[in-house]
Amino acid sequence: MLKATAAKLYQTGLALVLGAAFVLASPAAQARKAVEPVAAEPGLATIALADLPRDGRSTYARILQGGPFSSDKDGTVFGNRERILPRQSRGYYREYTVRTPGAKNRGARRIVCGGEQPQRPDACFYTGDHYNSFQQIVE
User: Fold this and answer.
1) Of 36, 82, 130, 139, which is the active-site residue?
2) pLDDT, tens digit, for every residue of 69-103?
3) Is residue 139 flagged as an active site residue?
4) Residue 38, Cβ density class (10 Å: 0-12 exposed, 13-18 middle, ≥19 buried)
5) Which of 11, 56, 75, 77 has the most CB atoms lying inside 10 A of its own CB?
6) Which member of 36, 41, 82, 95 is catalytic?
7) What confidence tens digit (pLDDT) does each residue in 8-43 have?
8) Are residues 59 and 120 in contact, defined by beta-carbon separation less than 8 angstroms?
9) Is 95 a catalytic residue?
10) Which architecture, in CATH terms, is 37-138?
């Protein structure tokens, strides 16, 4: 009887540990993890995440979750042709639409994130004027 009870407790404990590990490793849990703070790039203005427009904050959250996105262009490579952002190899930066109220097209607002893993960007930048200027998003 004692052996059976110990075995059942072991199995229950193991199931709980494995279940917790599964939940913590799930994509949803990974998306909820905060992006590691990145030092601001010298020469670039910053904007606090809380100071982004509401649509900017929701776009940022969707980036960390891997979508869904509002435009087919979201997540595509941003070429940095303006050379305002720090130079990186092609494919490093990706752009995402920030909905512009009243716009009939994608509007002028974007978030551009850089990094090897789109859901865990090294840094993200906000532009409200279609790439004429950028502010680094800081938490």
Assistant:
1) 130
2) 989 999 999 999 999 999 999 999 999 999 988 88
3) no
4) middle
5) 56
6) 95
7) 544 544 444 334 443 344 444 444 444 444 456 667
8) no
9) yes
10) Roll (3.10)
